[in-house]
Structure formats: structure tokens, C-alpha cells
Design goal:
713 residues; alpha/beta; Rossmann fold; Dimethylsulfoxide Reductase, domain 2; 23 helices; globular; binds ligand MGD; binds iron/sulfur cluster; binds molybdenum atom
């Protein structure tokens, strides 16, 4: 297949175009420059965007790779043998035919089983406009309560913790340029050097200014290489460790009692909760020397300024909300929030992982971070959408639970837009079983992903270079990304596909827009007065001011780079809530049959399910297959020999991986990256236990057995 045409109307004259990277939440600016290579263009770091000015990591530099990949879907594709769930075979069709068929089947399913029999699964890499539209399409056009998205697997524990503690969930409370002002930085369960590489210079600058950096991770990662202190923590123990820090701070009176008194509630309960977590006890549970616990506690509390960043390492657990709250408590009792060089931040993951959770693609939310069960929120959004509030459905179930509803027979159809859930969901054999049961699965994507093996229709979407829109980066900075190229073949921008489908469903008035800007202008109104208030933003302002931080309630409001200044929290009493945390065990603990802990995560050169980066030759070359990391002690215990491979067996299944023995990992643990499908897909083994609060799956901890697989086998 020929490369998709990249000669765009918009670009026909230009030799230089501007965009933003499609991958992580840093959202680095990039220049596309005409080049004498087989693509005709190359990517260079841009000087324009004031976030990671002049820098791009390997993923960003190679982001054209997937855009021009011959696998791009160039027309709607219909499964030829819809009843056969062997590998699909596809036949191209016209848009008209595709959408007529999809709409007819959806209507029939809804007539027979009710509106909620149709579901939508969205993503956090999409623009704010598409996220907003998808939520509106589900509620107002399909009239189903069943919409959720991949951010449930990502930011949901952090979001729940921030909402509980602060009354608002904005990734970082402060802009990145606060980092160099911090004198103490704790990085817990976050591998910034591989996952947000262009953020590293901010940390190095802080270090240059005298900051102490602490990393807390079961692996000595590239990030811990820049740390002064590395805490080698067994997965699942963050609340225990953080309780130890809090114990020392309170025992030694290092907290900021004035701040606690003026701006928080719940202090006495926290004091009580950490009473038993003396350095001796915590050292006993975690193996971390008690002097180290005291050093970090004193260091952080006594530093004039300090920041704590967390990420999925501790959040993707059944206790992820509690772990996150334990770290938030430390910022609050030491008064390290809402002033220069201070703050808390669960580092957002996907390109628009922040905006993706604000505009209503989450089962319980409406735009502006409003709750779907709040009558005032329903009235507000219904008035913007021009429908009766009573017509809005209620709250649906979380991402992973949607597959349970399919297995139960309640959901019969699903539209997936911007996710590859077969690879990225926990216990994925169960997800495959659910997908197989669907009467209709429609995938809107650039590629026939692993999930597409189960689809009835594939609809070709735009890449990041082919769609205009706004995104919100990890800081809460909303910015405009222009359209650089035209879509190849018959591929279309997501907003157009959604609009056309709504039209075929007879609900076109709820999804017809002339441009992404028209959607944004409505999103602004829908968000106005909510927590994530975009009310005062416009495309003109976003372009001229190179982005604006929410909340930005009025056209003359400058935006809010630093949240919670002077202790202004968003709870009704104006205070932040401290939460007493009782550390709990993971859903699965080790035993004789499953004596090790499996934890999963990322590599610097791949992105999520790998749909894009495995289609980028320069990146695939650096990591063609996943490799399991184990400690020399573990290798010794299973009598691993050079050249052996490693069998991992959990209660869900068994897979064989290449293995690397390294002293950088905790002796109890094995780490496997999740960027591959099929026999390389670690999510066939992960645990689908969910946090009772956030419904986040336990991607980071499950019990596993390790066995050597010799060459003789
Ligand atoms: N290269 C690359 N960059 C990415 C992505 C990608 O796929 N590839 N994805 C993006 C997205 S969507 C996200 S959400 C972010 C994720 O960014 P991160 O959360 O930083 O990435 P992970 O590798 O999932 O996990 C981080 C670390 O947590 C550690 N960990 C595991 N268990 C525990 C625990 O119990 N406690 C502690 N303290 N640490 C633990 C792991 O060893 C790992 O080093 O990255 C974004 N950036
Ligand atoms: N074991 C384990 N599993 C995990 C995690 C973990 O740490 N461990 N992390 C979880 C996390 S944090 C995340 S965020 C999830 C994410 O996992 P997924 O939701 O599977 O994310 P992606 O692989 O980015 O899938 C995005 C899909 O959308 C397509 N796409 C990209 N841009 C567009 C667009 O503009 N329009 C349309 N229509 N399609 C587009 C891509 O081609 C791709 O197929 O994985 C989760 N799964
Ligand atoms: S740091 Fe993130 S946004 Fe920047 S180039 Fe790398 S992947 Fe893209
Ligand atoms: Mo994520």
C-alpha cells in the first residue's frame, strides 16, 4: 500500500508547520519542516511553546512514523465474515454504507434492549473538543448512560484523591517552572525520565539550585539516577512508607501548625492513624532503614519549599486513592502547597489525560468536571445542549466494568474511539470474551488494532497532525493545536465521524458542528461555573497567549497557573481535607504457589498499547519485544541459567518472556512493560481487582510464579 498522501491543502505552500507531540502529557511543541527524505517532512523541537522549549524526546522526534505507516486505515472497513471470530478479514465500504449499517444496527439493538445496551469507550489522547463531543453524543444522541474511557485506567485514583483532598483535580497544582524553586522533591511511583523526558531539565535545574531529590520505586529507574536518595520500595507499600514519614514529622513537631490550623481539617485523625507507624515498625514492614525514613521526613518537612509528584506506580492499585492521599497529607501538614516552589502533582499521562477527564466522557461526569447526578449540573448542561434535564441519563459504570456488563448481556454494542482496550485492560482474556459477545463493535481509529480483531466495522480517523483542536497538558494549561495536514484517503476527523453518525441516528442536532472551534465555543459555556472552568477562553486567546491555565472563568481572567494560593481550597468550608489512612494489603498477596510480585509499566521508546510506536520503525528497533526484569536473588531461586527464558504464571494465565537479570529491581518483584499484544501481552496476567473508590484496576501488583524455560525445552 502506498504511503498516505501528506501533501495537504494547508501545507501546500508552507515549508514549516507547527504542531504538538501526540504522546505524553508534556505536549511539547514541534516544528514540521520540509525535508529531502522519503516522508518529505521531518520533526524538529519548536521554540514556540513555553513548556519544553527546544526539546523533544525520541517519541516526539519520530512521531511522523505512524502517521505515514502503510497500515493506516484509508476507508471504512467491514468485517467480511461477521460471525467468525477468527482473525478478521476486511472489505472497504463507503462512509454512507458504513454509517447507514451501523446506525440501523444500533437503533435495532436499542429498540430491543433499551438505550443503555449501546456503550461508548473513549480515550485521553483526543482533543478536548472530541472528548466533549463524545460525552454529548453518548448522552444526547445515543441516550445511553454507558460511556467511560481509558483514563479510568490512568488518572482515576489521582483524580479521586485530589477531589477528596482539595475539592479540585488539576494534574499539577503549579506550573512546571515552579520546580526549580523547590528545595526538596519527592518522586513516588513516577518514572519521569522515560515517561515525560522533557520534564527532566526542570528537575536538574532544581538540583543545580540545591534541591534534594528522592525517588520511591521498586526499580532503580532512569529517574532515580538523578536522585540523591532512592527508596527501593516493594510494590504496594506506599501508604506504609508515607505513614512512616508522617509519623516522624508529627513526633518531631516538624509540621506547620499554623497552616494546618488555618487551612485544613482532619489533622487529629491523621495523627491517630500514623501513631503505630514508627520508623522501627515501617522499617520492619518495608526493609527501608529507619535512618533513611527519618532523613527523608526531616528533609522534606524542614525544607523551605518542596514538591511531591506521584504517578501510576502507586495509583494503579486497589489502594491507589489511599496511597495518593498519604502523599497529599505530607504536603498539607508541612504547608507545602499554594506558594512558590511548592505543590502536589499526580503526573498526568496521556496527551490530553487532563482535558480527557474534564469534559464528560467519564461515566459519572458532565462537562466542566460536573457530576452527572447533581441536579444543578444536569440543569446547566441540559440548557447548553438544548434538552430536558430529565432526558439526560444517569451514571454508568467504569471502563473495565463495561466488559462485565457485556458478559452479563446488558450491553450489546460498543463504539471504541481512541483506545486499544484489548491490550490495555487488565485480565484481558476476559475482555476478549466480552468483545466476542458483542452484537456490534465499531472502532474509530487510525489502525486495525488488536481490539479491531473483534470489530464489525472499522472507521478511519485522523492522526494528531490532521485534526485541529485544544488539549490540556499536565500542568492544566489549555492550548491550541493547529491542523497541519489533510486526512489521508477517506479518513476523517473524529468530530466529523461522530457528527455524521448522530445524523444517521436521527439525532444530528446534538452533534453537528462546522468546526472544532464551534465545539470549543459550546464547551466553554458547558464548563462555565464548573471546577474546570474554560468559560473565559477562546481560540483567539489560546493562540495569542500560547495557552491558558484553568480555571479561567471570564474573558479578562488571566488563568490560574498556581492553584490553592493562600490556602484557598475548593471544598465548601474552604479547607483542604486531611485523610487518615490505614494501609491495606493489595488484592493479591504472595503465597507458596505465587511467591513473587508482578508489576507492569512503561519503556521510554514505546507508548501505551503500542498501536502507534510499534508502527514506528525507529522506536520498534530499540525494543522489539517485552523483556521481564528480575533480581539476581530471584534468578538464583529459580535456578535461571544464561540463555533461559522466563515463564510467568498468575491466577489468570501463563506466558513466556525474554528475561533480564538486574540488581535495579526489588528482590520480590518482576517488571514487564505492557506495550504489546498477543502472546506478549502482560495484561493477560494482570489482576482485574478494582479500587472500590476510583474503580482503577490493580495493574501494579499481583502475585506471580516464576519458572525458567531452558533452551532444551
Ligand atoms: N515512554 C512512555 N511515556 C509515557 C507513556 C508510555 O506508555 N511510554 N504513557 C503515558 C501515560 S498514559 C502515563 S499514565 C504515564 C505513566 O507514567 P509512570 O506512572 O511514571 O509510568 P509507569 O512505568 O507505569 O510507572 C512508574 C513507576 O512506578 C513503579 N512502581 C510500580 N509499583 C509501584 C509501587 O507500588 N509504588 C511505587 N512507588 N512505585 C511503583 C514502576 O517501577 C515504574 O518505574 O506516562 C506517560 N508517558
Ligand atoms: N498492565 C498495564 N496496563 C495498563 C497500564 C499499565 O501501567 N500497566 N496503564 C494504563 C494507562 S495509564 C493507560 S492511559 C491505558 C491506555 O491504553 P489505550 O487506551 O489502549 O491507549 P493507546 O494505546 O494510546 O490507544 C489509543 C488508540 O487510539 C488511536 N488514536 C490515537 N489518536 C487518535 C485520534 O486522534 N483519534 C482516534 N479515533 N484514534 C486515535 C491509536 O491508534 C490507538 O489505537 O493503558 C492502561 N493499561
Ligand atoms: S516528552 Fe512527551 S510530549 Fe514531549 S516529545 Fe516526548 S513523548 Fe512527546
Ligand atoms: Mo495513562
Amino acid at each position: 500500500m502506498a504511503l498516505p498522501p501528506l501533501a495537504a491543502a494547508a501545507s501546500s505552500q508552507a515549508d514549516r508547520l507547527y504542531s504538538h507531540c501526540c504522546y505524553c502529557s508534556m505536549q511539547c511543541g514541534m516544528d514540521l519542516i520540509r525535508a529531502d527524505n522519503e516522508i518529505g517532512w521531518e520533526i524538529k523541537p519548536s521554540q514556540l511553546f513555553p513548556v519544553a522549549t527546544g526539546r523533544l524526546c525520541q517519541k516526539g522526534l519520530n512521531a511522523l512514523g505512524h502517521v505515514v505507516h502503510p497500515d493506516r486505515l484509508l476507508s471504512p472497513m467491514r468485517r467480511v465474515a461477521p460471525d467468525e471470530h477468527a482473525r478478521a478479514s476486511w472489505q472497504s465500504a463507503s462512509w454512507d454504507h458504513a454509517l447507514d449499517d451501523i446506525a440501523a444496527r444500533m437503533k435495532a439493538i436499542q429498540q430491543q434492549y433499551g438505550n443503555d445496551a449501546v456503550s461508548v469507550f473513549g480515550g485521553g489522547s483526543l482533543t478536548n473538543e472530541v472528548c466533549y463531543l463524545l460525552g454529548k453524543f453518548a448522552r444526547a444522541a445515543l441516550r445511553t448512560k454507558h460511556i467511560d474511557y481509558n483514563g479510568r485506567y490512568c488518572m482515576s485514583s489521582a483524580a479521586a484523591a485530589q477531589l477528596r483532598a482539595f475539592g479540585a483535580d488539576r494534574g499539577l497544582n503549579a506550573a512546571l517552572d515552579e520546580i526549580p524553586k523547590a528545595k526538596y522533591v519527592i518522586l513516588a511511583g513516577t518514572n519521569i525520565a522515560e515517561c515525560q523526558p522533557t520534564m527532566v531539565p526542570y528537575l536538574l535545574e532544581a538540583k543545580k539550585q540545591g534541591a534534594i531529590i528522592v525517588t520511591i520505586d521498586p526499580r532503580r529507574t532512569m529517574t532515580s539516577k538523578i536522585a540523591d536518595i532512592h527508596i527501593n520500595l516493594q510494590p504496594g507499600f506506599d501508604s506504609v512508607f508515607a505513614s512512616g514519614l508522617m509519623h516522624v514529622i508529627l513526633e518531631e513537631g516538624l509540621h506547620d501548625s499554623r497552616y494546618v490550623e488555618a487551612h485544613t481539617s482532619g489533622f487529629a485523625d491523621v495523627r491517630e492513624a500514623v501513631r503505630a507507624f514508627s520508623p522501627d515498625n515501617v522499617s520492619h514492614y518495608t526493609g527501608i532503614p529507619k535512618e533513611v525514613i527519618r532523613t527523608v521526613a526531616r528533609g522534606f518537612a524542614q525544607a523551605e519549599t518542596g514538591l511531591i509528584f506521584t504517578a501510576r506506580g502507586l495509583e494503579q492499585q486497589v489502594n491507589g486513592v489511599e496511597h495518593t492521599l498519604s502523599y497529599i497529607n505530607l504536603c498539607l501538614v508541612t504547608g507545602k502547597i499554594g506558594r512558590p516552589g511548592c505543590g502536589f502533582g499526580p503526573i498526568t499521562g496521556q496527551a490530553n489525560g487532563q482535558g480527557g477527564r474534564e469534559h464528560g466522557q467519564k461515566a459519572d461526569q458532565l462537562p466542566g468536571y460536573r457530576l452527572i447526578e447533581d441536579p444543578a449540573a444536569r440543569r446547566h448542561v441540559a440548557s447548553v445542549w438544548g434538552i430536558d434535564p430529565d432526558e439526560l441519563p444517569g451514571k454508568g459504570v467504569s471502563a473495565y466494568e463495561l466488559y462485565g456488563k457485556i458478559l452479563d448481556g446488558e450491553i450489546k454494542a460498543m463504539i471504541v474511539l481512541g483506545s486499544n482496550p484489548l491490550v490495555s485492560s487488565p485480565n484481558s482474556a476476559r475482555v476478549a470474551e466480552a468483545l466476542q459477545k458483542l452484537e456490534l463493535l465499531v472502532i474509530i481509529d487510525m489502525f486495525a488494532t488488536e481490539t479491531a480483531d473483534y470489530a464489525h466495522w472499522l472507521l478511519p480517523s485522523s492522526s494528531f497532525l490532521e485534526a485541529e483542536g485544544t488539549l490540556t497538558n499536565l500542568e492544566g494549561r489549555v492550548f491550541h493545536r493547529p491542523k497541519a495536514f489533510e486526512t489521508p484517503g477517506e479518513a476523517l476527523e473524529d468530530y466529523k465521524i461522530i457528527g455524521m453518525l448522530a445524523e444517521k441516528l436521527g439525532r444530528g442536532r446534538y452533534a453537528a458542528y462546522a468546526s472544532p472551534e464551534a465545539i470549543f465555543d459550546e464547551l466553554r459555556l458547558a464548563s462555565a461555573g464548573g471546577i474546570a472552568d474554560y468559560g473565559g477562553m477562546s481560540y483567539t486567546r489560546l493562540k495569542e497567549e500560547k495557552g491558558l491555565f484553568w480555571p479561567c472563568p471570564s474573558p479578562d481572567h488571566p488563568g490560574t497557573p498556581r492553584m490553592f494560593e493562600n490556602g484557598a481550597f475548593l471544598h465548601a468550608d474552604g479547607r483542604a481535607k486531611l485523610h487518615p489512612i490505614t494501609p491495606m494489603e493489595p488484592a493479591e498477596t504472595t503465597d507458596r504457589d505465587y511467591p513473587f510480585i508482578l508489576t507492569t509499566g512503561r519503556l521510554g521508546n514505546h507508548y501505551l498499547s503500542g498501536a502507534q510506536t510499534r508502527r514506528t520503525a525507529a522506536l520498534l528497533k530499540k525494543a522489539a519485544v517485552p523483556v521481564a526484569e528480575i533480581h539476581p536473588h530471584a534468578a538464583e531461586r529459580i535456578l535461571l541459567r544464561p540463555g533461559d527464558r522466563l515463564r510467568l504464571t498468575t491466577r489468570r494465565g501463563s506466558l513466556v518472556f525474554d528475561v533480564k537479570v538486574t540488581a535495579d529491581i526489588h528482590p520480590t518483584s518482576v517488571f514487564v512493560p505492557f506495550h504489546w499484544g498477543g502472546e506478549h501481552s502482560i495484561n493477560l496476567l494482570t489482576n482485574d481487582a478494582l479500587s472500590p473508590i476510583s474503580r482503577m484496576p490493580e495493574f501494579k501488583v499481583c502475585a506471580v510464579r516464576l519458572e525458567r524455560v531452558g533452551q532444551e525445552a
